[in-house]
Design brief:
Helix 5 crosses helix 6. The protein is an alpha+beta fold. It has 2 domains: 279 residues, Beta-lactamase (3-Layer(aba) Sandwich), CATH 3.40.710.10; 95 residues, Lipocalin (Beta Barrel), CATH 2.40.128. The protein has 11 helices and 22 strands. The strands form 5 sheets. Strands 17-16-15-14-22-21-20-19-18 form a 9-stranded antiparallel sheet. Strands 2-1-13-12-11-10 form a 6-stranded antiparallel sheet, sandwiched between helices. It has a 3-stranded antiparallel sheet with strand order 5-9-6. The termini are far apart. The chain is 27% helix and 26% strand.
């Protein structure tokens, strides 16, 4: 018996040693993924749990280049669109209380939204199948994209309310649009009678012990421990902070530790009943019965055959990635204050150490401009004139500059139009103009399309 006990002891020691060696090797490999982020540049924080146990928790680079201060495992970052799942969770808490239904017409609560040919439901908003044009893309058409001026929550509501048309009929397509989630913020606030920040603080953050998490609902607030975000231009680091108060689609300030706490809700929920917890990870279904692939602020997919419940985030110079692999019980949380950092690639490289090697991505889809051929147009003077869009409250002036149609949008902002077909033009920024004529053949207006916002109308107001 003594000899048997001795052999069992030896086997246990060997198994433990092998496990430690494997763990150390995994740690070394994760270190290598982020080794390029050193203490003379912005960086990243990474935390990983397996079976509920913390397996990796480190930070690299600086949180402030002026001081300088290092990033730590407690540093607060903005997590971009990872925030959407918290807005969605607030909506589902109200569903759980019986205060609304996902099949409700959103105009029941937000009558300012125009009445379109088909009803937009709360479920359509959650799953990005509403057809609403993205508020940021709409403002970019005016020459003022996000990070170029201070946007308020009210401004994001206003431009959505101005839209007389949708990108598509609700429920027929999936198209990611931040307008869906600014509408959900307004919904939560009207139903609960409290701001989104107050509602989620009481009902989510305090309940789960997420003590380092709050909304950036006032970009002027001082947030101790927050990393400053940076981008790089011509080899020089520049501050790249979000100075807007729009939150709900993004704007959550948090840590990797708090995000791991939140991910536990996907395994064993404290906040939701089983049926509501199931809705969090149930993708919206399109009218033709196919899956949208997007649930309540969460993308549902596969990584090497394993279920991946994830979302990435990007706002100004901040980047983020949060993922849960239920079959392997692996959580990965990554936050960065460097605009050049790719959180999805890095996150899946880390996840691949636990769920198998990650397949290399295929070639990126070419832009609209690359897909279209140039077109010889000999009547460019027909398009000159002044045009106005009520939908985005913007004036475009088109003139010929050395025989090339040029759009003047605001002081210091001009760009050329590239003829690609009769009455159709593209731009270097992948915008797409389609002009219309009356019965006499006179150009009367055009529609402008960019990514996430299609066919915004402009009317000709003078030659």
């Amino acid at each position: 018996m003594k000899r048997s006990a001795y052999f069992i002891f030896i086997i246990l020691i060997f198994t433990w040693s092998a496990g430690m060696a494997q763990s150390n090797d995994t740690t070394r490999k994760i270190d290598q993924i982020f080794a390029q982020y050193h203490n003379a540049m912005p960086g990243v924080a990474i935390a990983v749990t397996v079976d509920g146990k913390l397996r990796y928790n480190k930070a690299f680079g600086l949180s402030n280049l002026e001081t300088p201060l290092p990033n730590t495992t407690e540093t607060i970052f903005e997590c971009g669109s990872v925030s959407k799942q918290f807005t969605a969770a607030a909506v589902l808490l109200l569903v759980q209380e019986g205060k609304l239904s996902l099949n409700d017409d959103i105009r029941k609560y937000i009558p300012e939204l125009p009445s379109y040919d088909a009803v937009i439901t709360i479920q359509h908003l959650l799953s990005h199948t509403s057809g609403l044009k993205d508020w940021g893309a709409l403002y970019s058409m005016t020459g003022w994209p996000r990070t170029t001026r201070a946007y308020t929550q009210e401004l994001s509501f206003d431009i959505v309310f101005r839209q007389k048309s949708l990108n598509f009929t609700p429920g027929t397509q999936y198209s990611y649009s931040n307008s869906n989630y600014v509408m959900l913020v307004l919904l939560v606030e009207r139903i609960s009678g409290r701001s989104l920040a107050e509602f989620t603080e009481e009902r989510i953050f305090k309940q789960l012990g997420m003590n380092n998490t709050q909304w950036r609902d006032n970009f002027r607030d001082i947030v101790p421990g927050r990393a400053v975000a940076y981008s790089v231009q011509n080899g020089v680091f520049l501050m790249d902070m979000p100075f807007e108060n729009v939150h709900g689609p993004g704007g959550l300030l948090t840590t990797t530790g708090d995000l791991l706490i939140w991910n536990r809700e996907l395994e064993s929920s404290k906040l939701f009943s089983d049926s509501i917890a199931g809705l969090r990870v149930s993708p919206g279904i399109l009218n033709d019965g196919t899956s949208s692939g997007y649930a309540a602020g969460l993308m549902i997919g596969k990584l090497n055959g394993y279920t991946e419940i994830s979302h990435s985030g990007s706002t100004a110079g901040y980047r983020a990635w949060l993922a849960w692999y239920p079959e392997k019980r692996v959580s990965v949380a990554i936050l960065s204050n460097y605009a050049s950092f790719n959180p999805t690639v890095a996150g899946r490289a880390v996840a691949g150490l636990f769920v198998g090697e990650v397949a290399q991505p295929g070639p990126a889809e070419r832009s609209r401009q690359e897909k279209r051929q140039s077109y010889e147009n000999s009547n460019l003077h027909n398009y000159t004139g002044t045009y106005y869009s009520e939908d985005i409250d913007a004036i475009f002036k088109i003139s010929l500059n050395n025989g090339v149609p040029e759009v003047y949008r605001k002081a210091g902002d001009r760009f050329d139009l590239i003829s690609v077909a009769k009455d159709e033009f593209s731009t270097s920024a992948d915008g797409y103009f389609k002009f219309f004529r009356d019965k006499k053949g006179r150009v009367t207006g055009f529609t402008l399309s960019v990514s996430r916002a299609e066919n915004v109308p402009f009317k000709r107001i003078s030659d």
